[in-house]
Amino acid sequence: MSIPKKVHIIEVGPRDGLQNETQTLSAALRVELIERLAQSGLKKIEVGSFVSPKWVPQMANTDAVLDALNSSNIKTLTQAQFAVLTPNLKGLEGAIQHGADEIAIFGAASERFTQKNINCSIKESLQRFEDIAASAQQLNLPMRGYVSTIIGCPYEGDIDPQAVADVAKTLYQMGCFEISLGDTIGVGTPIKFKRMLDAVLKDVPVEKLAVHCHNTYGQALVNIYASLEYGINKVDSAVAGLGGCPYAKGASGNIATEDVLYMLNGMNIDSGVDIDQVIATGQWICELLQRENQSKVGLALS
Question: For 61-110, how does the pLDDT look when each residue is reduced to its tens digit (9 = 90+)?
């Protein structure tokens, strides 16, 4: 397959990034972050998660974040779409009530990871999403599916590519318009990524796939490049490399949006995103969170 001429960036910093930061931002600051990102040209932004604030306090008030975004003119100005994670029917109800453009459900390719996280098997975890999927289809609400631990697991070690393919296929058949393949603990290398993609592509069309790479071992960009070689044209990333995996020792978070954009620009691949605006937003959010910027490009060019 040829490398795509255009790549779509899915910005996950306001959800997957912030939920793993130690500091909790107010709803107003989260809205400002999202608006800044939308103004840079990012068209798909994960803005929060409808989960219990008892478990993920950083995602409290996602309803207020959506309400503020929907009452502003940011969508009209930017044509950005705002997605939320909905792990259950209650979360789906919140997403509908507060006007989310898209929802996401979350599976894993590791049995032990699934048991540790939600105390059930992979099969049982996917069955729990069937009601969400049915409701979303009735409402014509786009539903994205995540597969975590696609390369390695903190409890199991290496993951069989066929296990990833099986979960991705189930989510696709359930009605997910897109499947995001996540290297949750950042242990992937290009060869491992290609083996995994060889398995997944037997069951899910390439145009339905995205990659979600954590940069724990500094391999995220080369794994994204390997995915581009397979024709995948959707990449998840987080401004300033926000976040991390609480289960991976030393995890440094998602690949930084700035770093992905720099690589794409250098390859003459269109993203429609202004890298300078993203760099400025990355510096701003890091100052707010009092944390180091994890973007190499952000540090070099700011």
Answer: 999 999 999 999 999 999 999 999 999 999 999 999 999 999 999 999 99
Tell me the two tokens of residue 295: 């973007």
Rounded to whole angstroms, the Cα distance separating 17 from 192 reads 25
Q: Which of 135, 150, 163, 162 is nearest to 193 (CA)?
A: 150
d(CA 38, CA 88): 27
Q: Is 245 a catalytic residue?
A: yes
- Given a contact cutoff of 8 angstroms between Cβ atoms, the answer to whether 11 and 257 are in contact is yes
Residue whose token pair is 């995948």:
232
Return the pLDDT at 118: 83
Tokens of residue 258, six digits? 């700035």
Residue tagged active-site, from 153, 176, 213, 245: 245
Angle between helices 257-266 and 220-229 (to 10 degrees): 50
User: What domains does the chain contain, in order, with CATH numbers?
Assistant: 8-301 (3.20.20.70)
